[in-house]
Specification:
Number of domains: 2
Strand content: 15-25%
Distance between the termini: 13 Å
Radius of gyration: 18 Å
Number of helices: 9
Oligomer: single chain
Helix content: 25-40%
CATH architecture of the largest domain: Sandwich
Structural class: alpha+beta
């Protein structure tokens, strides 16, 4: 397995978490994808030929996947704000699943599987241009996602008070756009933030959890296993943890 990430620059960081590349060799690979609070566009190549372009929904539970040998992914991991302003649609209809897109979506059919840097440069430029032509972006939403992804708040009420947007309105926005509540999203992001510590052998609860039992319960809810089993990561089962180990 070979994995790479490139982070976006400037204002694009509000919409894109990273561009990523994944490659298998001559062996089929099985992974479990864990909920992380993002969604992806993935161009999949098998034996250097583009075979699938897909948009993933938000994952709220672990997803087992099987990746064939000699497969390459060129992909973009998006923050939730992107669905409204870059895609101009909702994503709730594909919660915990994927939908296939046309090969020509965002000119993905023009790239070869070994052109990751070109893919990142071209797509970054196109997205930057799209952002410049957007009508005014709701500052409450910008602040909301900045606070949540940077783990600056723990509860819906705290977030509501910080951005001067009522909890009811925020939850209506989340349900209509993403198909989940803000409370659920906060839990997913909180668990995702623990994966690096777990991969490093820290199996104690973080400050955001009430106690050890709460920590284990939440991790098991979103990963299907205990923190101890996550840490073992047998056969690179959990892709997010495998990526952390490669850094």
């Amino acid at each position: 397995m070979k994995y790479r990430e490139i982070k976006p620059n400037g204002f694009l960081n509000n919409f894109v978490q990273c561009f990523w590349y994944y490659e298998t060799t001559d062996t089929e690979v099985q992974h479990t994808i864990l909920p992380d609070g993002y969604f992806d566009i993935i161009a999949e190549f098998e034996n250097e030929k583009l075979t699938t372009v897909k948009l993933t929904g938000i994952w709220t539970k672990p997803k087992d996947i099987k990746i064939p040998k000699n497969t390459t992914f060129l992909a973009i991991r998006f923050k939730l704000l992107a669905i409204e302003y870059l895609f101009k649609k909702e994503i709730k209809s594909i919660l915990d699943t994927t939908v296939n897109l046309h090969f020509t979506f965002w000119n993905l059919d023009t790239y070869k599987c070994d052109e990751f840097e070109k893919f990142v440069t071209d797509t970054s430029n196109e997205l930057d241009a799209s952002i410049k032509h957007l009508s005014e972006i709701d500052s409450r939403k910008l602040n909301l996602f900045e606070i949540v992804y940077q783990q600056k708040t723990k509860t819906v009420s705290e977030l509501s008070n910080q951005i001067f947007w009522s909890s009811r309105q925020i939850n209506r926005y989340f349900n209509s756009q993403f198909g989940i509540t803000l409370k659920e999203f906060l839990k997913i992001v909180r668990c995702n933030a623990t994966y690096e510590e777990i991969s490093n052998g820290n199996l104690s609860p973080q400050s955001d959890f009430f106690d050890q039992a709460h920590f284990i319960k939440e991790i098991k809810k979103y990963t299907g296993v205990t923190p101890k089993e996550l840490n073992k990561n047998k056969n690179d089962r959990f892709l997010q943890l495998s990526k952390l180990e490669e850094r």
